[in-house]
């Protein structure tokens, strides 16, 4: 799903860059016709009527060709705009899904932490201290931070004094 999203997002960025850089299709008609026209060294006043007619006919042919190309590209533009709208909708849905997923993950972590707090709070302080002495410092700090002060104090008092001091520093935010 994320791979498809990445591909669609890349296509959206590419299409947007084409239209932003080029200003869209409608802004190129006459400019492209004139850009393809060769500059003659002969001044316009010295050209004959037949040459002017020939050049005018060529310009009109180019203009018609450009109009035809624009007409051919119009459905593609509409399709790109439609796909961009779909991509925006998909992006919004994925963002909402990711937010819901993060909320569920946080709720699950909170439930697990509440369970650990209840578990260690129900133990005798000495036994809880022995087990917590083998846990990572961050885990112990999170568990004790969620306990009632009296229970956490009893467990801290039963732990190794050096580890208790480090835990206390982390709990106070002075680490």
What is the average of the pLDDT values?
A: 84
How many H/I helical runs? 7
Structural class: mainly alpha
Report the major sheet. Answer: none
Q: What's the total count of β strands?
A: 0
* CA(first)-CA(last) distance: 42 Å
Low-confidence residue ranges: 24-37
How much of the residues is beta strand, in percent?
Answer: under 5%
- State the domain count: 2
Question: Radius of gyration, rounded?
Answer: 36 Å
Tell me the overall shape: rod-shaped
* Fraction of residues in H or I helices: over 70%
Topology:
Blueprint: H1 2-22, H2 29-36, H3 49-122, H4 125-132, H5 137-145, H6 149-158, H7 161-172
Written description of the protein model:
The protein is mainly alpha-helical and 175 residues long. The chain folds into 2 domains: 91 residues; 53 residues, no CATH class. It has 7 helices and no strands. The longest helix is centred in the middle third of the chain and has 74 residues.
What are the defining features of this structure?
single chain; about 180 residues; mainly alpha; 2 domains; 7 helices; about 0% strand; rod-shaped
Short description:
The chain has helices at residues 2-22, 29-36, 49-122, 125-132, 137-145, 149-158, 161-172.
């Amino acid at each position: 799903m994320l791979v498809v999203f990445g591909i669609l997002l890349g296509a959206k960025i590419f299409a947007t860059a084409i239209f932003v850089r080029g200003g869209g299709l409608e802004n190129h008609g006459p400019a492209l016709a004139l850009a393809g026209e060769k500059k003659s060294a002969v001044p316009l006043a010295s050209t004959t009527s037949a040459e002017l007619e020939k050049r005018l006919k060529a310009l009109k042919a180019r203009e018609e060709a450009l109009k035809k190309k624009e007409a051919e590209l119009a459905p593609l533009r509409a399709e790109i705009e439609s796909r961009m709208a779909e991509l925006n909708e998909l992006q919004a849905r994925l963002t909402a899904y990711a937010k819901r997923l993060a909320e569920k993950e946080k709720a699950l972590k909170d439930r697990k932490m509440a369970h650990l707090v209840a578990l260690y709070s129900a133990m005798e302080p000495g036994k809880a201290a022995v087990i917590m002495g083998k846990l990572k410092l961050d885990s112990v700090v999170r568990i004790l931070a969620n306990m009632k002060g009296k229970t956490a104090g009893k467990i801290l008092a039963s732990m190794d004094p050096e580890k208790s001091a480090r835990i206390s520093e982390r709990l106070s935010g002075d680490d």
